[in-house]
Specification:
It is a single chain. The protein is α/β, with parallel strands linked by helices. Helices cover 35% and strands 21% of the residues. Helix 2 links the parallel strand 2 and strand 3.
Length: 108
């Protein structure tokens, strides 16, 4: 299968300090067939604003926000259950990936 969809799950909580750089690294991948699912577990910092900005800019990003912290299990499960890709990858709100990371993983 050429260029299978890769789902990237990004469960976050109070990642405002790093989330913009992490999302920049994800949207600048040289592998084009991706979806990014962000689930915000009731952050109290600027995480929500940054994620909404990316969600509005890119049609292949989906952003969910729980009003209250539901615990890590519910947040991680939400991301997995929303994924549609042939492959799934986890990313955190403070990861910095090289631009060819997803391409190299799919190629392998």
């Amino acid at each position: 299968m050429a260029n299978p969809l890769v789902s990237i799950g990004v469960p976050v909580f109070n990642e405002g300090r790093f989330i913009r750089q992490s999302l920049d690294a994800l949207v600048n991948q040289n592998y084009g067939n991706i979806e990014i699912i962000i689930s915000d577990n009731g952050s109290t910092d600027e995480t929500e604003e940054v994620c909404k900005e990316f969600d509005a800019r890119y049609s292949w990003i989906r952003y969910n926000r729980f009003e209250e912290n539901t615990g890590p299990s519910a947040n991680f499960n939400y991301v997995v259950n929303e994924a549609h890709g042939v492959y799934f990858m986890w990313a955190s709100g403070h990861d910095l990936w090289s631009e060819n990371f997803i391409f190299e993983c799919v190629d392998a």
